[in-house]
């Protein structure tokens, strides 16, 4: 039987701070005055991909989703927090544009996504070839930061698109949300996967264990989704997810079968093997092509979205594979307790 879909659960607690900037944002959410928010100079000193900035962005973005326990809903549109968010986003986006400045055209970028890497690299390849159950659990924990939202950030694109691109984006979303069946929503299937692995499936439960690389990949979706000017980049982001998902999902399903995790754990990835093989065609032929037929000047933004997504996914994957190859955990250790203890607090 499916667990209660994550969207019906109590909002998560506010994650612990990771530096002066996230501390100040957290303090504001918990009742501090606007005068205590971080300054522009403080934010400018933050590493754009670092723990402090990425957690601060996560704290700001979550106000537009499920929010946090004990945080007033009115803070979603708090002028001070929105001003801080804009500064954080500028720092993050500027770094991404600098690091993704050399890009091919759209056709080349999409073609590259269809090519499987020649060498045995990446998280899915690692897990299917030699991954252990504890590593599959860590992967599930880290991916839960974004997967329990599933396509929510992508839906911001729908009112900003027109014609073929809009219709195709809605068609993809219909599948992501279970074709109208709550228990078949992909976020609900992911919660079932977590339960089968002995993990708490509560929304936002493991943010404190997720490092900056995980938060950055998740924050990218909200950055693109919440800005109309970045609709082309969001389409590029969706293209990466849908085109690369099916092969990776096949490997992860095989890894879960090999570990003996059970059918409930395998179902999420089995579903994506089939669904995303179809979505890959739809996103290339209808979403991307439809957008560029309607707004050809957005082509550079589509390639930016593709490049930025690949960059951050690569950073995420390297974090996991590097840690596991050394025999260590890829999870961040929170200051308030032992990682193993947190994982088993169901």
Briefly summarize what is shown:
The chain has 346 residues and is mainly alpha-helical. The chain has helices at 20-29, 40-44, 51-61, 79-99, 106-113, 123-130, 133-147, 163-176, 186-196, 212-225, 231-259, 263-294, 299-325, 339-343. Helix content is 61%, strand content 0%.
Tell me about this structure.
The chain is mainly alpha-helical and 346 residues long. The protein contains 14 helices and no strands. The protein has helices at residues 20-29, 40-44, 51-61, 79-99, 106-113, 123-130, 133-147, 163-176, 186-196, 212-225, 231-259, 263-294, 299-325, 339-343. The chain is globular.
**Average pLDDT reading:** 91
Instruction: Report how far apart the termini are.
Output: 18 Å
Runs in which pLDDT lies below 50 for 5 or more consecutive residues are 1-8
**Proportion in β-strands:** under 5%
Order of helices and strands: HHHHHHHHHHHHHH
Rg, Cα atoms, Å:
19 Å
- Strand tally is 0
Q: What would you call the shape?
A: globular
Kindly state the percentage of residues in helix. Answer: 55-70%
Major sheet: size, sense and barrel closure?
none
* Separate helix tally: 14
Structural class: mainly alpha
């Amino acid at each position: 039987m499916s667990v209660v879909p994550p969207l019906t659960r109590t909002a998560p607690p506010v994650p612990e701070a990771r530096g002066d900037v996230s501390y100040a944002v957290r303090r504001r959410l918990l009742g501090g005055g606007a005068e205590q928010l971080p300054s522009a100079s403080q934010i400018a000193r933050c590493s754009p991909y670092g723990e402090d900035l990425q957690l601060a962005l996560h704290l700001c973005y979550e106000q537009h989703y499920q929010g946090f326990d004990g945080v007033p809903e009115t803070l979603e549109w708090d002028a001070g927090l929105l001003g801080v968010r804009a500064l954080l986003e500028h720092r993050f986006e500027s770094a991404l544009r600098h690091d993704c400045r050399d890009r091919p055209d759209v056709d080349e970028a999409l073609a590259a996504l269809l090519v499987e890497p020649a060498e045995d690299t990446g998280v899915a390849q690692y897990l299917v070839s030699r991954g252990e159950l504890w590593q599959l659990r860590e992967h599930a924990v880290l991916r839960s930061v974004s997967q329990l939202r599933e396509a929510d950030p992508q839906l911001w694109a729908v009112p900003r698109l027109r014609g073929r691109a809009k219709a195709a984006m809605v068609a993809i979303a219909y599948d992501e949300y279970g074709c109208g069946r709550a228990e078949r929503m992909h976020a609900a299937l992911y919660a079932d996967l977590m339960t089968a692995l002995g993990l708490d499936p509560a929304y936002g439960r493991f943010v404190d264990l997720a490092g900056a690389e995980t938060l950055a990949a998740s924050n990218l979706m909200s950055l693109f989704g919440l800005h109309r000017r970045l609709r082309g980049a969001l389409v590029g982001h969706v293209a990466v997810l849908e085109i690369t998902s099916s092969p990776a999902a096949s490997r992860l399903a095989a890894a879960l079968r090999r570990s003996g995790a059970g059918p409930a754990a395998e179902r999420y990835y089995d579903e994506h093997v089939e669904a995303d093989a179809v979505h890959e065609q739809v996103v290339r032929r209808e979403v991307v092509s439809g957008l560029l037929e309607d707004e050809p000047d957005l082509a550079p933004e589509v390639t930016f979205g593709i490049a930025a997504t690949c960059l951050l996914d690569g950073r995420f994957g390297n974090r996991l594979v590097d840690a596991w190859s050394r025999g260590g955990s890829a999870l961040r250790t929170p200051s308030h307790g032992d990682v193993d203890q947190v994982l088993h607090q169901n």
